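We store amino acids, tokens; thus:
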Amino acid sequence: MVRLLIMLLIAARLFAASGAATAKPADGATSASFTFSKRVEETRLRFTVRDNLGNPVRGLRAEDITLMQDGASVSAFTSFRETSNSPVQFTLLLDDSESMRFVIGSEQRVARLVFRDMDQGEGNSAALVRFATTSVTSGPAPTDVPKLKAVGLTAIYDTLCDIADESRVGVSRANESGKRDRERILVVLSDGEDNLSRHTLADAIRALQRADFVVYPVTIHSRRWQYRWQYVGDAVLEQLAAATGGQVFRLRNYQQLEKVIADIKAGHRAQYEVGFRLREGEESGFHPVEIRTPNRTWEVRAKTGYYIP
């Protein structure tokens, strides 16, 4: 009987100690059982500014720009800098579908020139991707461009999604290894017409924006159509460029492309990068942004927004 009473007393004390450990702490006290953490998220936006003559505008400061986020002005930046020599991931996308049969020879000659003069400095990379019904990657920094033959239908949206998805995998690996993030430039030689893709133009734009690609479509217009918008793919190319902060080039012939590539490279040597915090409680999806400068004659090129998973 005595032994039973002793056991009951021990059990009662253990129960009381357990209740005290789980009781709500008094005001001002802390509990090691609960830890509240808050993750502050931010994003960065790269942009270029050109004057009314097309020359890069340099020397801007944070107070010289206004950043609109979801229609409201951002009050403070987490970072602001002018970049001049960022590593570049350069991808040349060649349309070798049946619709390009009249210019396929020029595409191949231009591609050889582009990669012959490509800067292979530290952190830079270059790749050639051909597409028609499906896409074919010729590998990084090709020493020679394979012979092109214009056959098949055109799946440009599917190809753009594939390029963007592959790049996002590479970006994740680079972030994990601590390497510097690279500028991603995509030059697209195409008429912009798609007649096969499973994806839509909206899908392609969304994928390219998430992968931080800046797209520069290049299309050839004969002199007869130079001042007329008669090509179906023109509107597609315009949307790809506008959504990613790039520019469309309409050329009379591919001999002009060498200068275009030089202009693209020069523009990316005079970029700005601004960092800002995401708004508290922002929902998943697309959020529009806009960069404004005090001079309305200047042209600002930047992607039109960012995505939250």
User: Anything to note?
Assistant: Residues 52-83+271-308 form one domain. The chain has six helices and 14 strands.
